[in-house]
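Good morning,

Attaching, inline, the backbone tokens for the sequence recovery test we're adding to the shared suite. The designed sequence is right after.
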């Protein structure tokens, strides 16, 4: 299928989804508005789950959101997603870094930035791997939070591989995975899991944004932006499950030294922390 047809299908699907959601809003009326705006109710729902309880309001919200999109539309979205050119890791091909013939200053600079990103991706992937393993051994996550943990595990594992491949494409060597430590409550309590997830994802978003001005190659920037976009979606989902559905009007970049201080408690060996770089 050529690009024109793909774009046409994508536009048609977006329009169909918008029409279906408008219809759903009319049908659900005040109930849906209350579910979307009830941040306090969302917080009580998470708290009830952490105490082993259930939330009727949360279940009603889940049911309404689950019915927002018809099966026909889901199939169309999946078909368009399958037609979108991607590499074997699911990263859009437009964001793949071209093989560098020579590792010059630009490549060396971008390798250093990507290895910094890789350290953060290792951190996130390790956390979600442990969370899923803990939940498999003794279930403590329920419903959509359980599903979210597995989605985050999949995405962050993909990021580790994708960033490692990007570093090799530039003639660099990916850093080894450090050892990490996490608070115990992140693996026994849903609220503990969500709170630490939010901290890690928000830090990752700020870290990627903070290095945008320092990247030297355009394809490296495109690649980093493709992961940055995924990390912002993670952060938004987690904020939603914590009861805060209000989107931010902008994200705030953080310099490397500030990010390092934020993640320092999770590195078992301080020597494996990313090292601050001179501004290129």
């Amino acid at each position: 299928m050529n690009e024109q047809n793909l774009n046409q299908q994508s536009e048609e699907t977006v329009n169909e989804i918008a029409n279906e959601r408008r219809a759903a809003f009319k049908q659900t009326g005040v109930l849906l508005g209350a579910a979307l705006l009830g941040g306090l109710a969302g917080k009580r729902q998470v708290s009830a789950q952490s105490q082993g309880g259930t939330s009727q309001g949360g279940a009603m919200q889940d049911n309404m959101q689950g019915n927002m999109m018809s099966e026909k539309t889901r199939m169309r979205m999946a078909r368009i997603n399958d037609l979108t050119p991607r590499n074997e890791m699911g990263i859009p091909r437009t964001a793949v870094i071209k093989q560098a013939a020579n590792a010059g200053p630009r490549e060396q600079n971008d390798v250093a930035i990507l290895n910094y990103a890789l350290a953060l991706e290792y951190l996130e992937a390790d956390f979600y791997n442990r969370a899923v393993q803990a939940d498999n051994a003794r279930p403590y996550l329920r419903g959509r939070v359980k599903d979210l943990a597995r989605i985050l595990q999949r995405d962050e594992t993909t990021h580790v591989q994708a960033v490692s491949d990007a570093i090799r494409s530039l003639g660099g060597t990916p850093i080894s995975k450090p050892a990490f430590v996490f608070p115990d409550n992140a693996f026994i309590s849903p609220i503990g899991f969500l709170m630490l997830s939010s901290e890690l994802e928000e830090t990752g978003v700020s870290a990627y944004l903070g290095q945008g001005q320092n990247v030297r190659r355009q394809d490296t920037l495109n690649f980093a932006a493709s992961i940055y976009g995924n990390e912002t979606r993670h952060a938004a989902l987690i904020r939603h499950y914590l009861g805060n559905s209000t989107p931010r009007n902008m994200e705030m970049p953080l310099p490397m030294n500030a990010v390092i201080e934020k993640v320092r408690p999770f590195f078992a060996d301080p020597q494996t922390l990313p090292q601050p770089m001179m501004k290129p």
